[in-house]
UniProtKB/TrEMBL annotation:
This is Glycerophosphodiester phosphodiesterase family protein. InterPro entries: GP_PDE_dom (IPR030395), PLC-like_Pdiesterase_TIM-brl (IPR017946). Residues 14-267 form the GP-PDE domain. Coiled coil: none annotated. It holds the Pfam family GDPD. It comes from Streptomyces ovatisporus. It comes from the Bacteria.
Length: 268
């Protein structure tokens, strides 16, 4: 089993994980956002995965596609072909500026269509430098293990040589991953710090704590407690310079950010 302590970037005090890609600059979870994050130097890419009605894992945050596409409906009720017909890029466009990551020779569909996890794994495999992956399982309880099974199948197929973390707010989802693939470190996400976790303890076998930055602002002592038990700490979503500074001061292992370029510049 890979023990905690494995860092995504041993040469920097804190690793930088691009949240939904470089999602402040480009539409979240699109190839353009991930290409930009790789270009900007992010150590790893974060993505949320959901299962479509016909069993494909796609990178979409919300239960429905309404906010991030020109379509409507729940991802779980749509097939991949339905999602592929939607535009996941235009909602973000502001002003006339051309996005250099949307080069005109790219296919229109490639730029704005729904991103499958398979395509993201391919992007990482083809990247000009090593880049890790932090994959978050969404709605895992609805599918009773199918999200995790499909995810592990794809990881087995692509076998990324760079670090992979599986993250979830669901301890049950992480348990399923560990039971089938104990070598993959798991990250337990927390938007609230429940009393049973305040001493740094995590669900059995979980290697990394994933507190929101709000938790760390209120309870900075949490990081030391987690570290004392041998757990790493990845904080989200860390966009403001003062929060980056706080994370560095507390010895947080990785920050998950919408602004990889700015955070990397601050850390330099
Ligand atoms: O990386 C953790 C963070 O992404 C969890 O919150 O809602 O952005 O998926 P959410
Ligand atoms: Ca997420």
């Amino acid at each position: 089993e890979i023990r905690p302590g494995l860092r995504l970037s041993p040469d920097r005090p804190v690793s930088v994980i691009a949240h939904r890609g470089a999602s402040e600059a480009a539409p979240e979870h699109t190839l353009a956002a991930y290409r930009r994050a790789i270009d900007e130097g992010a150590d790893a890419l974060e993505c949320d995965v959901r299962l479509t009605a016909d069993g494909h894992l796609v990178c979409v945050h919300d239960r429905r596609v309404n906010r991030t596409s020109n379509g409507r409906g729940a991802v779980s009720a749509l097939e991949l072909a339905d999602l592929a017909a939607l535009d996941f890029g235009s909602w973000k466009k502001e002003g006339p500026d051309e996005d250099p990551y949307e080069s005109p020779d790219q296919e229109e569909s490639d730029r704005t269509s729904v991103l499958t996890l398979e395509r993201l794994l391919q992007l990482v495999a083809d990247a000009p430098r090593p880049v890790g992956l932090a994959i978050e399982t969404k709605h895992p309880s609805r599918w009773a293990g199918q999200v995790e099974a499909r995810l592990l199948q794809l990881l087995e197929k692509y076998r990324p040589v760079t670090p992979v973390r599986v993250m979830s707010f669901s301890a049950r989802s992480l348990h399923r991953i560990r039971a089938a693939a104990p070598h993959i470190p798991t990250v337990y996400l927390m938007s609230l710090l429940l009393p049973r976790h305040r001493d740094g303890r995590l669900p059995p076998g979980v290697a990394v704590a994933g507190p929101s930055i709000r938790i760390l602002r209120a309870r900075p002592e949490y990081v030391e407690r987690a570290h004392r038990l041998g757990n790493e700490v990845y904080a989200w979503t860390v966009n403001e310079p003062e929060d980056v500074e706080l994370c560095v001061r507390l010895g947080v292992d990785a920050v998950i950010t919408n602004r990889p370029q700015q955070v990397l510049a601050q850390l330099r």
